[in-house]
Amino acid sequence: MSDISAAQVKELRDRTGAGMMDCKKALAATVGNIDEAIQWLRTKGLAAAAKKAGRVAAEGLVAVAVDETAGAIVEVNSETDFVARNETFQELTRAIAKAALSAAGDYEVTTSAAYPGGAGTVTEAVNSMVGTIGENLRFRRSTGLKVEKGMVAHYIHSTVVPGMGKIAVLVALESEGDAGKLAELGKQLAMHVAATSPQSVTVAGLDPAVVERERKVYSEQAKESGKPDNIAAKMVEGRLRKFYGEAVLMEQLFVMNNETKVEKAIEEVTQEIGAPIVVTGFARFALGEGIDKREDDFVTEVLAAQGN
Questions:
Q1: Could you give the CA distance from residue 270 to residue 285 in angstroms, rounded to a whole number?
Q2: Plot region of 163 (φ>0 → left; ψ -120 to 50 → alpha; else → beta)
Q3: Would you state the pLDDT for residue 194?
Q4: How high is the mean pLDDT of the chain?
Q5: Rounded CA separation 293/115 (Å)
Q6: What's the CATH superfamily of 6-52?
Q7: What is the pLDDT of residue 266?
Q8: Predicted pLDDT of residue 36
Q9: Helix, coil or strand: residue 70
Q10: Selecting from 3.10.20.740, 3.40.50.300, 3.40.30.10, 3.30.479.20, what CATH number does the domain 59-199+281-300 have?
Q11: Element (H or E) spanning 24, and its range?
Q12: Of 75, 127, 223, 254, which one has the fewest beta carbons inside 10 Å?
């Protein structure tokens, strides 16, 4: 198993549509031979998924499962938007979200977890559903948030059915304050994150590499302006502050009033409830983000088969 590379696992997943753990097992059983691993997967009842794995699955649903102080988001993809409105597919997605919540959002743990209300694992359930629905399906990713005291709020944008849609957000709020007011703030913050897609909660939470990249760009721009060094340095810092205002949750203008920063809005609610509020994290999934759709996608294939 130690000789199996991540690249081999990815290639096998891309070619078969099988789950990560199944791909690892197949490669281990066939000493890393991709073609033999595909046959191994087929002998284990994954042939239906393998036949359709070449098709791009970029539609589907993102879904949340929450339990007061914990929450999870999952993305389950299909080839067409039509399938996202299929009750069977929705039930599959709902069950995967439930499994992800139990697994604290961990993707690999969720894939190998027992499928809620059914036999086998989550991965096996997805592959079985491929044959039922007739499209390539993929449980693509999951994540989770948890707090000790407070709540994990959520929001679904472009809702298809309750708890599922095109954009899903979780926001974790640590607080001992009034639960009702905290829930109201949490919902507003989740809606804000859905609209603005920040990169981090605070400036300190930004990836240092991202900050350095931006600083270099602004430094080059300042040099080209021909301004004295002291003025150029102020220009760089000013542009970094603007970047923070766009990329950092606490520095953004709150979309609910577009007047005060998010940090200030939280401070105001803190005074109302008489207890500190700390945003410990957020998660945002937008359906299909990062997936390269081939021009010859499933719809095009159907039209081509009909001679259109």
A1: 28
A2: left
A3: 96
A4: 87
A5: 29
A6: Ubiquitin-associated (UBA) domain (1.10.8.10)
A7: 97
A8: 85
A9: strand
A10: 3.30.479.20
A11: helix 20-29
A12: 223
What pTM was computed for the model? 0.76
DSSP code at position 204: G
DSSP reduced 3-state for 265: helix
Residue 259, both tokens: 């007047």
Q: Domain spans of the chain? A: 6-52, 59-199+281-300
CA distances from 106 to 3, 99, 111, 144, 304 (A): 24, 10, 9, 7, 40
Q: In angstroms, rounded to a whole number, what is the distance separating the alpha carbons of residues 76 and 57?
A: 9
The dihedral sign for the CA sequence 289, 112, 80, 87: negative
Q: Which residues of the chain have pLDDT under 70?
A: 1-2, 14, 16-19, 42-57, 292-308
Instruction: Give the per-residue pLDDT at 47.
Output: 47
Neighbours of 83 (CB within 10 A): 23
> In 3D, which of 149, 88, 139, 146 has the Cα closest to residue 111?
139
